[in-house]
Please model this.
Amino acid sequence: MTNIPQLTSFESKKIMCEVIRFNYLYRDSGNWKKFGNEEFSNPEKLTIEEIAQKIRENLIDHEYFYPDQVGIKKFRFHRYLDDYSWYEFESVEMVVNENLSRRELESIGSFFVRLQKMKSQDITSIQGQPIS
Model:
């Protein structure tokens, strides 16, 4: 009989937290919704609470983001014109995804950098015009 080390619940949570799912949605003016998600690695071993806080700190009004500015493909929801150009943050969650290697996923830290850049651009411009 081999001796297999048992993981404590804390260690199990740290292992499970290595893949983070970022859930978001697009809502049109008729309140129709389309949901999506992106998965990220978590090499920093941040908790879900820390990740959610860092995300909200870098969203417009702690809720909205421009998908094309943060590397998320826009939905093909409307053929010619979107009602709104922003998407809504819904949640983050830990997932166990045995099909993906951590090396294949972008890190959640690099996603934070893109969110920060998007928010700083939004603050310094109004409809594409720099504030003087």
The chain has a mean pLDDT of 79. The chain has one domain: 9-130. Residues 9-130 form one domain.
